[in-house]
Structures are given as C-alpha cells and as structure tokens.
Amino acid sequence: MPNGKSLFLGVLVGGVVGASVSLLTTPTSGEEMRSRMKDQTDRLRDLTQEIKENGLDLKDQLTQTSKEGAALLKDLSQDIKESVESWKETVEPHQESLQEHLLQIEEGIKELEEKIKEQNYSK
C-alpha cells in the first residue's frame, strides 16, 4: 500500500506544481489568474475527492471479495471432507469383501500346492 500512497502523493504534487507553473508563466491579468487558480484548485479538490472515494470503494470491494472467498473455501473444504467420508463408507464394505476373497484364494492355492506335493511324493 505504501507504493499507492507514494503514487497518489506524486500525482497530487505534480499536478499542483504543473498547474501553478502554467498559471504563473502565462501572460494574464491578476484577476484572470486568480480565477484560473481557483478553477484549478476546485478541479484538483474534486479529483482528489473522487480518487479518495474510488479508493474507499475499492477497499470495500476487496474486503467483501476476501470474505466471500473465505466463505467459499470453507464450504468447498466441507464439501470435500463430506465427499471423502462418503467415498470411505462406500469403499470399506468392498474392501472387506476383497480381503475375504483374497484369503480364500490364498487358502485355495495352499491346498493346491499341498496336493501337488502329495502327488509328487506318491509317484
């Protein structure tokens, strides 16, 4: 944020100096020069007020966007957590079933190995 303040201050000072030099170096009467200086001051004041309002609006929008983003991330995090839990609940019964089938297959293989050994010994 310091860069934004420096930029704003630079634009403001540059505008004032430029307007002052321009007004002071032009050949005009005192009354006309005072009138121009007043007009330039009014324009500068209006521009400064507009920049300030736009800056405040931008700050409010950023604050609101940050709050909405945080809420969305919280909701998304909760949705992901629920999805993972649902997936776990869906997979667990199948996982147990697969483990049972694997145990049955292992037992079947052991029985086959024993039968093959018995047949080889009996020959």
TrEMBL record:
It comes from the Bacteria. The keyword Coiled coil applies. SUPFAM superfamilies: Apolipoprotein A-I. The keyword Transmembrane does not apply. Keywords: Coiled coil. Residues 95-122 form a coiled coil. PANTHER family: GENERAL STRESS PROTEIN, IG HYPOTHETICAL 17707. This is General stress protein. It comes from Alkalibacillus haloalkaliphilus. The lineage of its organism: Bacteria, Bacillati, Bacillota, Bacilli, Bacillales.
